[in-house]
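Agenda item 2: 2-acetamido-2-deoxy-beta-D-glucopyranose complex prediction
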Amino acid sequence: MASSTSSSLFKLATFTLCLGILFGTSSGQLTANFYARTCPNFRSVITRAVNSAVSSEARMGASLLRLHFHDCFGCDASVLLDTTANFTGEKGAFPNAGSIRGFNVIDTIKTQLERQCAGVVSCADILAAAARDSVVALGGPGWNLVFGRRDSTTANANTANSNLPAPTLSLSGLISSFSNQNLNTNEMVALSGAHTIGQARCTTFRSRLANDNNINASFATATRANCPTSGGDNNLSPLDATPTRFDNRYFTDLISQRGLLHSDQELFNGGSTDALVRTYASNQATFFRDFASAMVKMSNLNPLTGSNGQIRTNCARTN
Ligand code: HEM
Ligand SMILES: *[C@@H]1O[C@H](CO)[C@@H](O)[C@H](O)[C@H]1NC(C)=O
Ligand SMILES: *[C@@H]1O[C@H](CO)[C@@H](O)[C@H](O)[C@H]1NC(C)=O
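Presented output:
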């Protein structure tokens, strides 16, 4: 997410294109066995820490998945950096402020890995693996990961503000936000299924409660009780009816007009994505398959590789 100048974007694009031609992928030099010699146990360290965090608090699985999403759109761990004299961190960007969480879990994992293999495993790779392990811990599908992402030396709060989709977006706004990252409409719908886990703050759906008429009446009444017209901004509501289980309930909820965010319900509102929502609502295996392959694609967007970036020692700071 940190990419800033058009020339560095151009270099990255050219580089990625060349490798894409060579290997038929757009994931740079990422490989499955990247740490095989340098940190052979890194996966079990991450999985153990994620399982332990999720068993103390199931929502942490959702928070770790979202952290990786907000980092991607350029998976370079820029989302983890605190603000410095030189740049404003992404933690304070509008979609993130008071909202993204899970930094402690990432820091715990990083500390353990630094003890085993100092300076080897990137924070960006930790985020990618923790997101996958979180989905699995909550009953969702796994996918094959590749590694070798490096960490950015800067962050860009403006890019975070402009690239991350807002809950007020229309269907066409959602489609273009994802297509800007090379993710097509079907992938956008599958990835939105991440809202089968986790919670949202009242401030992100209050205007849906006030203005949308495509909202289930009994759902609206129950949700308004916890999200009044003024006050209670930080009150949480579940994004679907089974927020600690990674299943396809999100999509069946959309069909009964129980989407929590305006952007959620846009996926089933008489438009071009209704059919795919119905498919996922009636076939969880299809959703799992499509979600896993879209996650692989999102996880591999514009990584820093080779001699670009660095391996941070502390995920919150550049070295
Ligand atoms: C389609 C466009 C999307 C929009 C507009 C959107 C927006 C939001 C908003 C507003 C929240 C609540 C934040 C808060 O109250 O602080 C949220 C939560 C969440 N989002 Fe999204 N999101 C989108 C796509 C995604 C994607 C692609 C993923 C992951 C692959 C994802 C994963 C999550 C998760 C897991 C949560 C719950 C986090 C928690 O409980 O800590 N979202 N999203
Ligand atoms: C800011 O950037 C300068 C020049 O690149 C560098 O020397 C300095 O250490 C940076 N400061 C911080 C707080 O990162
Ligand atoms: C509202 O939700 C209930 C319970 O899920 C469901 O039976 C009903 O069909 C929904 N109404 C609409 C208009 O979808």
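Discussion summary: The pocket of 2-acetamido-2-deoxy-beta-D-glucopyranose (ligand 2) is lined by residues 84-86 (CB under 6 Å).
Owner for follow-up: CH.
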